[in-house]
Amino acid sequence: MRLxxxxxxxxxxxxxxxxxxxxxxxxxxxEDKQIEKKVVIKFYAAGSGLDNDGKNMFKDxxxxxxxxxxxxxxxxxxxxITEDTPFLILPYCxxxxxxxxxxxxxxxxxxxxxxxxxxxxxxxHSREQPIIHQDIKPDNILIDENGNYLxxxxxxxxxxxxxxxxxxxxxxxxxxxxxxxxxxxxxxRDAIMASDIWSLGATIYELMEGDVxxxxxxxxxxxxGADFKGFYNEDxxxxxQNVVLACLNQEPWDRxxxxxxYEYACFALDGKLNKIVIKLPSEKEKKPSLFKFKKKxxxxxxxxxxxVAGGILLYIFKPEPKPIEPIPAVVSAYPIIIDSIDIxxxxxxxxxxxxxxxDIYSINSMFLKPRITYKYGNPDKDTVVLNIKWxxxxxxxxxxxxxxxxxxDTIFKKSINPDSVTVQSFxxxxxxxxxxxxxxxxxGTARLEIWYNDTCLKTKxxxxxxxxxxxxxxxxxxxxxxxxx
Length: 485
What we know:
Layout: E1 8-9, E2 13-21, E3 25-32, E4 37-44, H1 52-66, E5 78-82, E6 85-91, H2 107-125, E7 141-143, E8 149-151, H3 158-167, H4 193-209, E9 213-216, H5 219-223, H6 238-247, H7 258-269, H8 298-316, E10 336-346, E11 352-357, E12 359-362, E13 366-376, E14 383-392, E15 404-412, E16 426-429, E17 433-435, E18 444-452, E19 455-466, H9 471-474
Parallel strand pairs: 12-19
Antiparallel strand pairs: 1-2, 2-3, 3-4, 4-6, 5-6, 7-8, 10-11, 10-13, 13-16, 13-17, 14-15, 14-18, 18-19
Helix pairs in contact: 2-4, 2-7, 4-6
């Protein structure tokens, strides 16, 4: 099924523009012509469609979804199938998702976020057959006109997701890697309720700090022994930090339940932070003094003292310790782990026209030059072919245009010490893309996506401005030529 602007769906919904897409779904803004109101349509397997068994299964899935009813769930209002493609009609939230609030939320706002989302998750988890969301992240938490946070994209079972992945020949696991709990990378990969809590913890951390806690590889890095990034923003209380740490615990059974998080948020919003007491696994109990034992425990005390004395003698006469074996590097499912992307605008001589940053300025020519920092993942891959996708104002085309483009680029790994693959960072400059034609560029929000096979490794959004370049940028000297591979 081909989706495009102005297309009429089921004789009622006119597509306006695409809002986003994932591995097996596309989300569009549309207008309901009968009531003249904007809605959102989520299409599943639009490119391939489903066979009769798949369509019947989806009907059963969505019947169950319509039975769900909670204040903090974005509940669909209509379901249908057109051209073998199932779709849902959802309310349109003009305030967008929490992705727009990353790194820009007060503590009270984050506690309200925790309260709303944990309330919705508690409802899903407490069903007779618990519903695991499997993909909690900022993009899937929308904000309604009253400022309430709503969980979207819920209620689709693992079986249905597997059917969708097969229909579009998609091999990637359900969920977004950066928000996937460590147990999702084990032999038993099925999501559990605690997996949603880890994803929520990663989301809260990102809202606080502006970045995810374990790079784009999420719980895979944590499972491999990577260190937690820590907290840098001093605007948040120790209680809030401890809530995040508890959610991100590597062991599922040590994480709080959704109802616990709801209770913590209620305490915080009532000004009772002191009631939030979270005992993290790393905190050890203070041991009682041996001298406080009662006389009836004298024999036990004597035994303990003998053991301690024996331990001291063993320590004195112990052999020389063996060298500590280095901790093996984390092996990623992907050949490289991209830490960051920066964009600059080059002039016609391939010199940086303005510095790498969040804003790109252009008067006439525009050659966008991506720079990435990355670490090595899978050591077996010496050559990495990446697919680079450019978007402008959420539009992307398969041929070179001012609105978007897609092409391949290659990274050749350098020879390094294999023990340092997750420690040593590298910088690479990808192929430029653009046009020297004056006036050929539109201003707006641009986005770069870097893909490896069927997985998006990293995205970067930035603003393109046309017209005068700010004074502080005019004074920049020409920077060095950007190297290629």
